[in-house]
Amino acid sequence: MSDATTSPRSNSTPPSTGGATIRPEEAEHFGRLAREWWDPQGSSAMLHRLNPVRLGFIREAVDEHWGGDAESAKPLAGKTALDVGCGAGLLCEPLARLGAAVTGVDAAPENVAAATAHADGARLDIRYLPGELAELDLGRFDLVTCLEVIEHVADKAVLLRSLAERLVPGGLAILSTPNRTPQSKLLLVEGAEAVGMIPKGTHHWSDFVTPEELCELLREAGLEPLAMKGIGFSPMKGLHLSDDLSLNYILSAKPA
Maximum distance among all alpha carbons in the chain? Predict the structure, then answer.
């Protein structure tokens, strides 16, 4: 597996500000879904549909941030990447194929086991670790991603400080999360969970974060927000990047 801690591209991690972000009940909930993460028709079907949309934003952000060749198949070659709240590796594996030396961290050991097994089967060299981000000696990374995670943690400010600590100077962070709006409550909680598109109990609407709140938390953590796009849904387009932030959104940030 890749070892970003000993990589020449990874610097030592400063002492963390501390604080717990993992909610045991959330880790248990997602751990119970570990066996189905890679089934595009299973409990993570929505994530499989969401992944190409998020990857489109990530690719554009990476090319913009580092001035890469938009035609390159491996825009992250020579760079390290950390995915926080990685689940069973749905994002880690594409990042590895884009050329990055990837580390994934998740609160649920069951997810880490599923991610490791799938990466081994795909012959991808990805390092996976379970546990609290602030307590892991990981080093620093060029790219840090944290997608659909902040709405599940106990302390959002601590999580964002931990993410900032893991970035090298000049690095790039990318986050996505549902917005706290009537639309997200209706479609994600009362709609998608009610009909089984998303496992019941996955979302708690009061924990959703508005773009204004997230940008303020990022600035307090020492990160400067860059680009932001909504992730919308329509019967014609399905899930897609949009200027409408009311349902879900994804953004990039850099060290201030």
Answer: 49
